[in-house]
Specification:
Blueprint: H1 2-17, E1 22-25, E2 32-35, H2 41-58, E3 64-66, E4 75-78, H3 82-87, E5 99-104, E6 108-112, H4 117-128, E7 133-136, E8 139-141, E9 147-149, E10 152-157, E11 163-167, H5 175-180, H6 186-192, E12 193-195, H7 200-203, H8 206-209, E13 219-220, E14 223-224, H9 235-251, E15 257-259, H10 272-281, H11 284-298, E16 303-308, E17 326-331, H12 348-360, E18 364-369, H13 383-395, E19 400-404, H14 415-427, H15 433-445, H16 449-464, H17 486-502, H18 506-529, E20 538-541, E21 544-547, H19 549-564, H20 577-592, E22 601-604, E23 635-638, E24 642-654, E25 657-663, E26 674-680, E27 687-693, E28 704-710, E29 715-725, E30 742-750
Parallel strand pairs: 2-3, 2-4, 4-6, 11-19, 12-15, 15-16, 16-17, 17-18, 18-19
Antiparallel strand pairs: 1-9, 5-6, 5-10, 7-8, 13-14, 20-21, 22-24, 23-30, 24-29, 25-28, 25-30, 26-27, 26-29
Helix pairs in contact: 2-4, 10-11, 13-14, 14-15, 15-16, 16-17, 17-18, 18-19, 19-20
């Protein structure tokens, strides 16, 4: 009798342990994970991921079985199982790589039709029902359950966008991170894309064809140029391009999308026939579409993609529509990120172009930009516009979203949170961003979260309420009236101090430090601009500039920690932290050097531009040197030589004269071709003491400062003359060939 009672007790305990819906109790489970009898690779992988994370969370190991093995009363069905198709009533409502999650409290079903949909469903269950979070590839949070009971739910989840890519942002290099957040990779895209953007030169290489066929390329100011576009009115160009495109398609017949698109410059052809087409269609985009349609007709089974970008952004105004297999890649490169595009008075032309393309076609791929490319480590508070901008694109029929971040080895401010928010919105454009943001900051920054939330909010509020542009090619100085105001900088410094005190875990302190690095970068840049005595590299002692030791320490720490965190570039064209340090130290050395010409009278014989007037001639002897930003402390001369005469007020022995010029052809700024220094005792009789010719390198997008310097003069003089012979128009290799170009100079140093 006692044995029978013991058996009843054990039986009752077992019933209690695995009551209905108890997926796991006390690290045990009587559930199985069930896949179709002919499971696909992705279904098997999704099942193994469910199994793995249930072990992490509940301690229970659920066996993976196929549906034909037995009839399961307690099971997690993953994939296109017979059970799912019997139970689910809304399968026909699934779109693209959407999925269904279903639970009646006893049986869990995760079902998807395309690609990785079923895997997305598994990760969605882990996140929504189990509470797991993957903040970054190395920050996974899995709650621990003593027991877990299945809730009841029936959820159909379809994506807002068919293609969801955050291009080359660091977290997305992790396949787990991409799949968890339902993002597509560069590799996913390239399986469907045979060629991708700016392909005119790939299909008709200028270096191969220009000598024999200059008429195939852009005519600018009556001359055919190499750094331009194709002549789209020329039938021979169409024939050769289609011949080359067929060769590429035959190499990769599975690819669906083939980009036939303008090069990355503004030099569209202005020959007589191209101008006639521009006029006929009301925009250069009409001329492009006229050409692309002819390509598309020849390849009806492929999607021929082209660019609505810069000079082709404005849609054609009349008489032409894209062929059904023409895809329009519409780009937002010019847009201000301080406020939502749709509400921004400065962006109504973009709004008109977006809605105009919507009227023309529903086949739109949107190329958006979400970081500051010229200064990637500058704080870039654009997170408040991510959702309204994506909603605007979605409302205008966009289905393919490409968010361009940085290259694979580059990092930015708020990288982890920005990526996390974008990923959530690309799947559900109407998701609760405030909840997502709070969830991330709370989970990622631990006890420091309140201070990081305040830092985030101060940044975003300052931009959204400040009325100033936030540009993807901006500089820290452009934030000096908004998110980088002195009073906010002081608040930020205090918030970071409090954050470090609140959280002592080394891993989280590293996260705080990484977030602080962009702030340090901005502070260094602002201090070189000497905005206020507090925001300056220097203090003035007895009339002399003396560098603040704390600023040199900040610079050293910034560069050291960039190395620690794998920050290799500070801008998209490869400006390293080490190069930044060299330039800063050069700036400090020049700024603290004795300059006998400082504050003396200077007369310019040539006219500077009012657009870049930094105080006129006096700016060249005010003791403030330019930095690697031509908007700061540089005097600009458009299509002008440079000639200046300095009066030192008395004769004195001089050993050294130097002057700097800025180089940045992307903004049409070149170093003078020839520079000469002259000295005189009386201002009438001049002696040339220095002459240097200079050949500008054919490098478009690398900014630098070129110094012209003469030492060992050792002559007594009163007057100094500097002459510089400028390039007046952009050279033939330049995409702005024939257009007026600039020289920029900052400070003349005499010792």
């Amino acid at each position: 009798m006692k044995r029978f009672l013991l058996f009843l007790i054990l039986f009752a305990t077992t019933l209690h342990l695995f009551s209905q819906g108890s997926l796991a109790k006390r690290a045990a489970s009587d559930y199985s994970i069930v896949v179709p009898s002919q499971a696909t690779e992705i279904e098997l992988y999704a099942a193994s991921e469910m199994q793995k994370y249930l072990i992490y969370s509940c301690g229970a190991t659920l066996p993976i079985k196929t549906e034909d093995q037995t009839d399961y009363t307690k099971a997690i069905y993953i994939g296109k199982t017979i059970k799912a198709e019997q139970v689910l009533k809304n399968i026909n409502q699934i779109k693209d790589d959407g999925f269904i999650k279903y639970s009646d409290g006893q049986t869990l079903i995760i079902y998807g039709l395309k690609n990785k949909a079923v895997l997305y469903g598994v990760y969605d269950f882990l996140e929504e029902q189990l509470g797991c979070r993957l903040y970054t590839p190395d920050a996974l949070d899995v709650p621990q359950y003593g027991d877990y009971t299945l809730p009841v739910f029936n959820q159909l989840k379809n994506p807002s966008f068919i293609h969801r890519e955050v291009h080359y942002y660091y977290p997305n290099q992790s396949e787990l991170y991409r799949d968890w957040h339902r993002l597509h990779s560069n590799e996913d895209r390239m399986r469907e894309w045979g060629m991708f953007v700016h392909t005119f030169n790939k299909l008709i290489p200028v270096e191969k064809y220009f000598t024999e066929h200059p008429e195939w390329f852009s005519e600018i100011h009556g001359k055919r140029i190499q750094d331009g576009q194709l002549c789209l009115s020329n039938p021979a160009v169409l024939e050769e391009l289609c011949k080359k495109l067929k060769i590429e398609i035959d190499k990769n017949p599975e690819a669906i999308y083939w980009s036939v698109s303008n090069n990355d410059n503004m030099n569209n052809c202005t020959c007589k026939d191209c101008r006639r087409l521009d006029s006929l269609y009301g925009s250069p985009s009409g001329t492009l579409l006229y050409f692309i349609n002819q390509v598309a007709v020849r390849f009806p089974d492929k999607q021929i993609s082209t660019l609505a970008y810069q000079y082709t952004r404005k849609p054609p105004q009349r008489m032409i529509q894209p062929e059904p297999n023409v895809n329009i890649m519409f780009c937002s490169i010019e847009c201000d990120r301080s406020m939502p595009i749709a509400l921004n008075p400065r962006e109504q032309s973009f709004v008109a172009d977006m809605t105009g393309w919507k009227r023309v076609t529903q086949n739109i791929f949107l190329w958006d930009y979400v970081v500051q490319f010229r200064n990637m480590m500058n704080p870039f508070p654009n997170l408040h516009v991510l959702q309204p901008n994506l909603q605007f694109f979605h409302q205008n029929g966009v289905k393919l979203m490409f968010e361009q971040a940085t290259g694979p080895n580059n990092k930015t401010s708020w990288m982890e949170l920005r990526n996390y928010i974008i990923a959530k919105l690309l799947w559900d454009v109407n998701a609760d961003v405030q909840q997502i943001t709070n969830e991330f900051i709370t989970g990622y920054y631990g006890k420091a979260a309140p201070f990081m939330k305040e830092y985030y909010q101060l940044n975003e509020d300052a931009v959204s309420n400040g009325g100033e542009r936030l540009d993807i090619y901006g500089y820290p100085i452009h934030g000096s009236k908004t998110y980088l105001k002195l009073e906010l900088i002081k608040k930020y410094e205090e918030l970071f101090k409090q954050a470090y005190k609140a959280e002592d875990k080394p891993s989280i302190q590293d996260r705080i430090r990484y977030l602080e690095l962009p702030f340090d970068f901005a502070k260094i840049e602002l201090c070189m601009s000497e905005i206020t005595p507090e925001l300056s590299f220097f203090v003035t002692i007895k009339g002399d500039k003396v560098v603040k030791p704390a600023m040199l320490q900040l610079l050293d720490r910034f560069v050291e920690d960039c190395k620690k965190f794998g920050i290799n570039n500070l801008e998209e064209n490869g400006y390293t932290p080490e190069q930044f340090k060299v330039n800063v130290l050069n700036f400090v050395q020049k700024s603290t050097a004795k300059n006998v010409a400082k504050g003396k009278k200077i007369t310019l014989k040539t006219k500077f531009s009012d657009q870049y007037n930094r105080g006129g001639a006096a700016a060249l002897l005010d003791g403030t040197f330019g930095i690697l930003n031509y908007n700061q402390n540089w005097l600009g001369f458009l299509q002008q030589d440079f000639e200046a005469v300095i009066d030192l007020e008395k004769k004195q022995k001089i050993d050294k004269i130097s002057v700097d010029f800025y180089f940045y052809p992307l903004s049409w700024i070149f170093v003078p071709e020839n520079v000469e220094f002259y000295v005189s005792k009386d201002g009438k009789k001049w002696e040339k003491v220095y002459q240097e010719s200079y050949k500008n390198p054919e490098i478009l997008a690398k900014a630098s400062i070129k110094k012209f310097e003469k030492t060992g003069i050792e002559q007594e003089m009163r007057y100094i003359k500097i002459k510089a012979q400028a390039i007046k128009t952009n050279p033939e290799w330049h995409r702005g060939y024939g257009q007026p170009c600039w020289i920029f100079t900052d400070e003349i140093l005499v010792q």
